Known about the structure:
Order of helices and strands: HEHEEHEEHEHEHHHEEEEHHH
Structural class: alpha/beta
Strand order of the largest sheet: 5-1-6-7-8-11
Amino acid sequence: MATIDAQDLRKRIGRFRVLIVGRANAGKTTILQKVCNTTDQPEIYDAKGNKIDADIVKSSIKRGNHNITNEMIFKSNPIFVFHDSCGFEAGSEDEFENMKKFISERAHATKLQERIHAIWYCIPMDEPCRTFQRSEEKFFLECDTGRVPVVAIFTKFEALRPFAYGEIKNELKGVSTEERSKRIAERVEELFTKTGVCDRLCNPENRARPKSYVRLQSKCFRSTSPMSKITLATVLDMNKQNTNCDALLESTTLALDDEELRLCLVSTQESNMELCIKCAIT
Length: 282
């Protein structure tokens, strides 16, 4: 691995291209800002590389018009280029078909630099009874993602804790703080399993299936759900300024089948020694 030059890889691959998918208020913008270590908004370019005024883009989205081929780039980390699926989640069939076409074309593009290299699908957990809606069902049943890895991101995971507490609060009277936290965490896992979201993501009829799963939450309680048999990485408070998305980047890197893409992504995270070691071993 040491013989492969990172700069040469970037010249051949270009930027690392990610499609981010999810409903409004799923936390997509926050995730992208954390990945790129910034609080700024991205610059937006059309498919030909022409810069677009952000106000014009927002106005178009409000009118129901969104161009998924537009590229979002943060000055703080221009190695990444992001595409936003914004539109189809609200129920627009035309937007969904446009997204399907975009994914199919970019997943199978001949040139590596033109492909999408990863898909991040954000599923908010603040409504446990509505975690997997029609938009998620259509995406995973119908979209041809080819070899592009899909990473399912469970955002706002801490929202399950009030529900868990409400169900067992009478059982918590008189117990120690440690025991209280343990029981709430256990009930959170039970609630998460009851949503059935992991089972539906792993439906054998799905055309697309996640290769990795990540939790983003504001409290630190790392755990594995024994019932779903899925290990979920945990990220700390997304509202704190110094929080990063190392767990998401690690999951994405390890989900990549293409060694050159993996090395390219690792090279952007040289300060993450743990990730570099894992990828050297894998």
